[in-house]
Automatic annotation (TrEMBL), chains A, B:
Gene3D superfamilies reported in the protein's UniProt record: DNA-binding pseudobarrel domain
Region (Disordered) residue spans: 1-20, 30-49, 58-96
Pfam families found in the cross-reference section: B3
SMART domains assigned to the protein according to its UniProt record, in alphabetical order: B3
Organism: Ficus carica
Domain of life: Eukaryota
UniProt entry keywords in alphabetical sequence: DNA-binding, Nucleus, Transcription, Transcription regulation
Primary location class: nucleus
The protein's name in its UniProt record: TF-B3 domain-containing protein
GO cellular component, one term: nucleus
Keyword Transcription regulation applies: yes
A GO term, aspect molecular function: DNA-binding transcription factor activity
Keyword Transcription: yes
Amino acid sequence: MDNINISSLSSSTPHKPHYIPEFYHHHHYNHQIPPQEHPSPMSSTYNPSLTFNLIQDENDIDDPDQNDERQQPLPPQQNLNDDDDKEPMFEKPLTPSDVGKLNRLVIPKQHAEKYFPLGGGGGGGGESGLLLSFEDELGKFWRFRYSYWNSSQSYVLTKGWSRYVKEKRLDAGDVVLFERHRRDGDRLFIGWRRQFVWGIQHTR
Amino acid sequence: MDNINISSLSSSTPHKPHYIPEFYHHHHYNHQIPPQEHPSPMSSTYNPSLTFNLIQDENDIDDPDQNDERQQPLPPQQNLNDDDDKEPMFEKPLTPSDVGKLNRLVIPKQHAEKYFPLGGGGGGGGESGLLLSFEDELGKFWRFRYSYWNSSQSYVLTKGWSRYVKEKRLDAGDVVLFERHRRDGDRLFIGWRRQFVWGIQHTR
DNA sequence: CTGCCTACCTGTTGG
DNA sequence: CCCAACAGGTAGGCA
């Protein structure tokens, strides 16, 4: 699991589309991935069409709601070049439900139980259901309610998730990436990339 | 805010449908209403079609549930001719949700905070959430749980509400009326009237 | 199981 | 145009 930093990535990578740093909306995303934990779904790849500006144009006004999960981005320099310190946990191609009106993301059980144990939470939450805070590619923090639904026997991110989907303009088939800090496993990161569809340039 | 008692109302009222006492399922309901506190929605008016008999035919068998909010009606003579002692608080046209499966009535915030303050309750309840008891047009008492939902920033009647909707056969567009005793503000009253739809006789 | 109940959550919208 | 209010939802517990 070697890390490839931004300078080495600026040259093109074999068997991949031309690399442009902005393709990775999780900044400096690590290519070296154990196949089981970090599959590269056939249906997804890095998308040359860029929404970086759109993201920044959007709601960067602070929501006055005191319960808002979003927090101010850190100063950019605080987040540069710490990619070597991140390890991927897993990624998930988004289903229509994950980006639809259900306002929840189902976390595959094996990943959930490995990385986000409930009941002894490190997220500051209570017995069942806790708050997980993830840093995004802009240094912005996203807090999601994470819990287990007995009825469907599944782990989900609920509160806060729909705002993330909206701000990142995620759609079914896009992929979300979950990482953590190599030395401080409580520092969590979230990223995303666009679905790749053959012959179609996505310019959402 | 003059009161019009039942005898003065038994003659027809200009600009209103023919007045029939039974239109008012809150007995002797007061017509003279401050516009802000007690609006007369365009979509609603007094409904000549009568369900008084239906109400009495209905579940007068005592619900064996120990938590039943309903109590026995007082003897009728105890409730006659005290209309002059009631003042309207507010009314609400019922939404589909108010009469649907959510089993709750949203109380518009300005009315809730004016008439049903939480936290210093006179309803015998605890800090957040108390029981409010209302007398209906038959002298029957209805006890509802009244509380505040932080997440939606709204005041609601919950427990007991669905039984009231069912017994009174209320539908979306019908209006519920809340009154209190002029001298004893702790005595609360609830009434209702049918939605008026132009050209249609409601015979529910 | 069904219906009720509490306590959440969110998209919409009118003021 | 923004945001508080609310209409319309949810899960989970319980009787």
